[in-house]
Amino acid sequence: MTTSHSNSMLIGVGNPFRSDDGAGLAIVRLLRGRIPPEMKCGEETGDGAELLDAWKGAECVILIDAVQSGAPPATIYRFDARAESLPAWFSHVSTHTFGVAEAVELARHMDELPPKLIVYGIEGLDFSPGTEISPEVAEALPAISKLILREIVKLSAVRSAKSV
Question: 46 FRET partner, CA 20 to 30 A, in 90, 117, 123, 142?
């Protein structure tokens, strides 16, 4: 039996016109064509209602967003959102009052979280208007992409083993 990724999603979250807030989108763009073709790729603004709709019915979701916690730029955070709540600062840079962290917690409360939800946060430096990602964050994007690609491959292997 072959593994289907049709119920798997990679979602980049951000605003490409707010500098480092576009980092999650940039990573999805780097990974397109490198992930299993059956795995859906999406780009979202971070609006919580849109996120709830985007991952509806998905079995496995990897979501990537820029964050601002005060750590050095390009610091990577990884959360298993099924096992733990996202920190309060996770939605700090969102222009939406109902962002990623709020969408995750609402879905948890409504028992509508995907069975597997991994959330990556990338520490941004500059969230001012502009289309350029800061050099510190841009330099880290290829390494972050490889890290996420390894996770996708690992999850794929686990799903393959379970379907045998």
Answer: 142
Is 15 part of a structural domain of the chain?
A: yes
Cα separation, 23 vs 120, in Å, equals: 11
Q: What domain range includes position 136?
A: 8-163
Q: Which amino acid is at 95?
A: T
Global pTM value: 0.89
Residue 95 is encoded by which pair of tokens? 């222009």
Outline where DSSP puts E strands in the chain. 8-13, 40-44, 60-67, 76-80, 116-123
CATH number at residue 62: 3.40.50.1450
Q: Tens of pLDDT along 105-160?
A: 999 999 999 999 999 999 999 999 999 999 999 999 999 999 999 999 888 777 66
Question: How far apart, in Å, are the Cα atoms of 133 and each of 82, 120, 125?
Answer: 30, 17, 9
Residue 119 located in a structural domain: yes
Residue 71 lies inside a defined structural domain of this protein? yes
Q: What is the average pLDDT across 64-89? A: 92
pLDDT for 26 beyond 70: yes
Distance CA 35, CA 84 (A): 26
Does residue 34 contact residue 149 with C-beta atoms inside 8 Å?
Answer: yes
